[in-house]
Amino acid sequence: GKVYSQVFIDSYSRVADAKLYTDKTAITAADMLNDRVLPWYESQGIPILRILTDRGSEYKGNIEHHAFELFLSIEGIEHTTTKAYSPQTNGMCERFNKTMKQEFFDTAMRKKIYTDLDDLQLDLDIWLEHFNNERPHSGKYCYGKTPMQTFKDSKKLAVEKNNEILYLDYISDSQNLTDNQVQNL
């Protein structure tokens, strides 16, 4: 079956996280924020004030009837969206999705047959730990440091400015795993 990766990236430090789902809905988008993103940033003392997403139906809808929009409203998070049909507007997420596909999914699918989503998520979490804490980045603010080191170095500034922006996106080419790669998902 298909596996979708709900992704977030801190736009300054490039700290990233991803959670796997078997569908792509407003509920899963809100779940990622509720389960992983907001608790982590709260533990760091940094409030999330604004999130940028694409215009997918999992992110956009009538605020009164759309789980993701309602969740953001309740949490007091401003929601901005990319320009229609302009993936370059969310280039940071697009680039991370490509890196995750090349460095994690392509390799993982050749090495192992996954029988459940939790097993695949566990391996993805190990890769994300490496990505955030060991893999140097040459990006605008990282200058050869890891995303986590960049985050730690900039934490005081982030708290002072109180202006964090996260990019939230689905992997653009969702992994369609063959039946012999994933069973019983």
TrEMBL record:
One of its GO terms (molecular function) is nucleic acid binding. GO terms for biological process: DNA integration. It comes from the Bacteria. Residues 1-155 form the Integrase catalytic domain. SUPFAM superfamilies: Ribonuclease H-like (SSF53098). InterPro entries: Integrase_cat-core, Retrotran_Ty1/copia-like, RNaseH-like_sf, RNaseH_sf. Pfam families: rve_3. This is Integrase core domain protein.
